[in-house]
Design goal:
Radius of gyration of chain A: 20 Å
Strand content of chain B: under 5%
Order of helices and strands of chain A: HEEHEHEHHEEHHHEHEEEEHH
Oligomer: heterodimer
Number of strands of chain B: 4
Number of helices of chain B: 23
Structural class of chain B: mainly alpha
Distance between the termini of chain A: 25 Å
Largest interface: A-B, 42 and 40 residues
Helix content of chain B: 55-70%
Strand order of the largest sheet of chain B: 1-2
Radius of gyration of chain B: 23 Å
Strand content of chain A: 5-15%
Distance between the termini of chain B: 15 Å
Largest sheet of chain A: 9 strands, mixed
Number of helices of chain A: 11
Chain lengths: 382, 444
């Protein structure tokens, strides 16, 4: 069925001849990390459609998968990800399933802290793995950029990082708007004001529109590419996305989120032009969501999720997973997708290959607690 | 006593690092003693006398320049003035963010709005900051009459309400085509002292305006530190009758005597008492409180500290019923204080306050910005606050944990609903934004 990760691991020891000469790592590869804040639902993004427990546990949240979105005999891609589906066909996309950081509780804040800092325990490290990655890169490669108003934790540390955010006031994101609606629900003064504010924007409860979001996300992708395609521009970048915490109204919201992500990636690819062949984009989230649907048309905080590797430099067209299935005996704590692939290993393997770094050294710098874990080889074109 | 009331209703919102007196009332009274009229941020701004010098230089240049170059000189003056304005907005903001006497700082904002000037009149754009720094700030803890005098004699007010040009019809200057302007006289009666429809007539306005003639800016040969001048040749000769009382012609002293009587009039005490009560308690303040404040105003001869002390000790202000909806300025400052910010780019403050509908020192009229909920609680305004909260939260990055911050800035009023919303937010940034736009944070 799928390419078994163990096959990669078997080959790793042979292939991972040490390349210690980071000073000579003359690479013009670009590495972009897209963080999905809020726990993206991997099971409805890279969908295990052939697993009988999927439809059973997901009920009305189960995504019907038309033939074009099927990736193989087990997995299909969410229909909103049309451009990414094409990248998969063009061997520019690899999907990873049942991926998780070492964090096993279910707090967004703590989970994001673990993922970004590269520590096993929340708040133990004050710097982020992306900034520590910079220390391994040649002088020019040390330039990094975050497409946000402040430097996210993953990019905080010794090396200065540029930030870029559009100067005009951005529209509040949908997730925040919905939370505000709940927060004002019982306030007699604010509730009617808020309802009419939403109506004025054509997005009264339940029918928020995603048209603008898609355009904005495509534009952000192109803006990011404008920096990254420049031969003298930054080599490392981070883009934060939010709105993945789908406790309710999941199908509509996830559809909009994924259309946005698809547009972001599409805009990035278009903007990169020929430099797309040197580009590696990693998309990941802090943890996944429950396998079963909850009582409010959504899913709750879970454990393992899916990740994506996209770009012209990716050895794509594959799905990497030790897939255990969704039978209840195989679930983590009886409710979540069981992690079988370490996100830290995936990240350090990608970065080491992207910048021709020694894999062990990269892992030691980026995820000190994970030193010695086996890496994943041949993720990228050599 | 509710700590939240002391921090948010009296103060400008809690800073996470603020040391708070365990006795809320005592903490507020202490602030009256430790207030700094000219804190560091303001010290760097040009003082009124300097700006008057610049004004006079411009006037002289215009007069001496050929006709074709005059508008260029005026435009340059306004451009320079805009820079002074921006810097002063920055000083006001920094002072509000850093202040350890936030109650008195709030009083500065209150009085600055009571005696409003507006840079809608572009001519005074460079002077607006110095009005607050030199007329309001040194006098908010003194007597009402001194505050009133400082405000109406400041060049910004004299120019804003056209007093600087006013000439008595029978004065020496009348023959040069100058005439009487009632603007300042009317607004002193209607807005600054007695209040609208309190019994004065149009003839009272005119008489007061006649008495005020001669009150203007220093001339070109004035000494370096003067900010006001009485010009006898502009002054309307003769005795005047205001509200039934005759004032003999003592030159500059004639209007001063009127202002003295206006400052101590019962209607003024009621007017000021009502505005203070409205600011600190509710849009429709309890009448008992208004009367109590008016009484101490009268009994103390307008001693502002005595009035504040009665306010602090009034039970009505200590109810945590969240009756006041924060103005855009209050909300912006309290948000930034909560996030621990000590400085903000002045251009960002100007932009934010303009987006929220309360541009600094630019109310639509001499009445200042309204101090009522309906002025600020509106659908689009609320959406903008949500957008700005999101932006401020993004700028704070992951340095702020709203779960820890919320109970510190909203002690004893934080609801379970807000706590839960913050704890369940999908990121630290969203949690911070939710705190800033929570119902209890929007009010004070």
């Amino acid at each position: 069925m799928n390419i078994d990760r163990r096959n990669f691991l078997g080959a790793t020891t042979l292939l991972a001849a040490p390349i210690l000469s980071f000073a000579n790592a003359l690479t013009d590869r670009r590495f972009v990390f897209i963080l999905q804040r809020g726990a993206a639902d991997g099971l409805n993004i890279v969908i295990p459609y052939a697993d009988p427990n999927y439809v059973k546990l997901r009920g009305s949240l189960a995504i019907e998968t038309a033939a074009p979105m099927k990736l193989d005999g087990t997995f299909a891609l969410h229909p909103a990800l049309a451009q990414i589906r094409k990248m998969y066909a063009d061997k520019e996309a690899t999907f990873f399933h049942a991926v998780a950081s070492p964090y096993r509780d279910r707090s967004h804040f703590d989970g994001q802290n673990v993922l970004e800092s590269g520590s096993k325990i929340p708040y133990q490290l004050k710097t982020g793995w992306m900034n520590r990655l910079l220390s391994l890169l040649p002088r020019h490669g040390k330039e990094a950029i975050a497409f946000s108003s402040a430097v996210p934790l993953a990019l905080q540390g010794t090396y200065d990082v540029t930030t870029y955010a559009p100067s005009s006031l951005p529209e509040a994101n949908e997730d925040l708007l919905m939370r505000v609606q709940q927060l004002y629900a019982t306030d007699r003064q604010l509730n009617p004001l808020w309802t009419s504010a939403l109506e004025a924007r054509g997005m009264a409860s339940g029918q928020m529109q995603g048209g603008d979001k898609r355009q904005n996300d495509a534009a952000l992708g192109k803006i990011a590419a404008g920096f990254l395609a420049n031969p003298k521009g930054p080599r490392v970048a981070m883009i934060e996305t939010s709105g993945w915490d789908t406790h309710s109204g999941q199908n509509e919201r996830l559809d909009r989120q994924l259309r946005g992500l698809d547009a972001l990636i599409g805009g990035l690819k278009e903007g990169m032009g020929s430099a797309w062949s040197k580009t590696v984009v990693l998309v990941a989230t802090e943890f996944g969501r429950t396998v079963a649907a909850n009582g409010t048309g959504g899913t709750d905080h879970g454990t393992a999720s899916a990740a994506m590797l996209l770009g012209g430099a990716v050895q794509g067209g594959r799905i990497v997973s030790d897939w255990l299935g969704l039978a209840s005996s195989n679930l983590f704590e009886g409710r979540d997708l069981q992690p079988t692939l370490d996100l830290d290993v995936l990240i350090s393997s990608v970065c080491a290959q992207a910048f021709q770094l020694d894999t062990e050294l990269a892992q030691k710098m980026m995820f000190p607690y994970a030193t010695g874990k086996k890496s994943i080889s041949t993720l990228l074109l050599s | 006593m509710s700590l939240s009331v002391a921090l948010n209703r009296f103060g400008l919102g809690a800073r996470p690092d603020e040391l708070v007196h365990s006795d809320s009332q005592a903490w507020l009274v202490t602030q009256l003693l430790s207030y700094d009229p000219l804190p560091a941020a303001w010290k760097q701004q040009p003082r009124t006398a300097t700006l008057v010098g610049t004004w006079n230089d411009m006037q002289r240049s215009v007069r001496m320049a050929p006709e074709g170059q005059r508008s260029g000189i005026r435009e340059q003056y306004l451009r320079d003035g805009s820079l002074v304005y921006q810097a002063a907005v920055g000083a006001r903001t920094a002072s509000a963010l850093e202040s350890s006497t936030p109650f008195v700082e709030r009083l500065v904002h209150f009085w600055s709005n009571h005696f409003a000037v507006s840079v809608d009149k572009l001519l005074i754009v460079g002077l607006a900051g110095s009005f607050e720094a030199d007329a309001i700030r040194p006098n908010v803890l003194g007597r009402f009459e001194d505050l009133l005098l400082a405000a109406v004699r400041h060049p910004a007010m004299l120019l804003y309400l056209d007093q600087a040009q006013s000439a008595g019809p029978n004065s020496g200057m009348a023959s040069r085509g100058r005439g009487l302007n009632e603007n300042l006289a009317r607004e002193i009666l209607e807005l600054h002292t007695l209040g609208v429809r309190t019994g004065y007539t149009q003839e009272d306005v005119k008489e007061f305006a006649r008495a005020l003639t001669g009150w203007t800016l220093p001339g070109e040969n004035a000494s370096g530190d003067s900010t006001f001048r009485f010009v006898p040749s502009l002054h309307e000769p003769g005795s005047r009758v205001l509200l039934g009382k005759t004032y003999s012609d003592t030159g500059e002293g004639q209007a001063r005597a009127m202002i003295h009587d206006l400052a101590s009039a019962p209607a003024t005490a009621l007017h000021v008492a009502r505005k203070l009560a409205q600011h600190f308690v509710a849009d429709e303040p309890p009448q008992a409180l208004v009367l109590r404040l008016a009484k101490v105003f009268t009994d103390s001869g307008g001693d502002l500290q005595e009035i504040y002390k009665v306010l602090i000790s009034s039970p009505e202000v200590w109810q945590t019923n969240h009756s006041k909806f924060k103005s855009p300025w209050d909300w912006t400052i309290s948000s930034m204080r909560a996030l621990g910010r000590r400085s903000v780019a002045p251009s960002q403050v100007t932009a934010l306050l303009t987006q929220l509908g309360q541009p600094v020192w630019r109310p639509g009229s001499p009445a200042g910005f309204k101090d009522t909920t309906s002025t600020w609680a509106a659908p689009d305004a609320l959406m903008r606050r949500v957008e700005i909260a999101q932006r401020l939260a993004q700028e704070s990055g992951d340095s702020v944990d709203a779960r820890i911050l919320a109970p510190r800035v909203l002690p004893d009023v934080l609801t379970e609903a807000t706590s839960n919303a913050i704890a369940r937010a999908e990121s630290r940034g969203t949690a911070v934004a939710l705190l800033l736009i929570s119902p209890e944070f929007l009010r004070r």
